[in-house]
Design brief:
154 residues; alpha+beta; 5 strands; globular; binds FE2/S2 (inorganic) cluster
Length: 154
């Protein structure tokens, strides 16, 4: 076990874990933030997506020792204009079904709009390719991203 001071959502959180513990468990069990989900555990489904210094990362496959002083953002700390537009579009279009994958989907969608404010269908499919939804909400996800992009256009 070792003590780490993780910067999560603008706060420093002390967690005492094995250095090889995935960031996901430091976030959920160490910091008590339950919005980030465990899906596959092998960086294949996107349920555990968080930002590390603004970049979407799979927290199930990132050991705590590698995080260092990077800023971690989870779904609970998402407050960019893109994130707000995405969350509003998600609610308006009733995107989630069981909801399990959706925090990862929202994290990836907001990151996409931050990089590409007017994505095409292909851009969306490519960017969201690593976020699996067992309920197959993909059509609504795509529509919600287009809707959020329109909102951001003003
Ligand atoms: S739980 Fe991390 S990508 Fe599936
Ligand atoms: S909404 Fe159920 S897994 Fe995506």
């Amino acid at each position: 076990m070792a003590a780490f001071a993780l910067k999560i959502n603008g706060q420093t959180r002390q967690v005492d874990v094995d250095p090889n513990t995935p960031l996901l468990w430091a976030i959920r069990d160490g910091a008590g933030l339950m919005g980030t989900k465990y899906g596959c555990g092998v960086a294949q489904c996107g349920a555990c997506t968080v930002y590390v210094d603004g970049q979407p990362m799979r927290s199930c496959s990132l050991p705590v020792w590698a995080v260092g002083s990077s800023e971690v953002t989870t779904i609970e700390g998402l407050d960019s204009k893109e994130a707000k537009a995405v969350q509003a579009a998600w609610a308006a279009l009733d995107v989630p079904q069981c909801g399990y994958c959706q925090s990862g989907q929202v994290m990836s969608a907001a990151a996409l709009l931050n990089l590409n404010p007017k994505p095409s269908d292909d851009d969306i499919d490519l960017a969201m390719n690593g976020n699996i939804c067992r309920c197959a909400t993909y059509v609504r996800i795509r529509a919600a991203i287009h809707s959020a992009a329109k909102t951001l256009e003003g």
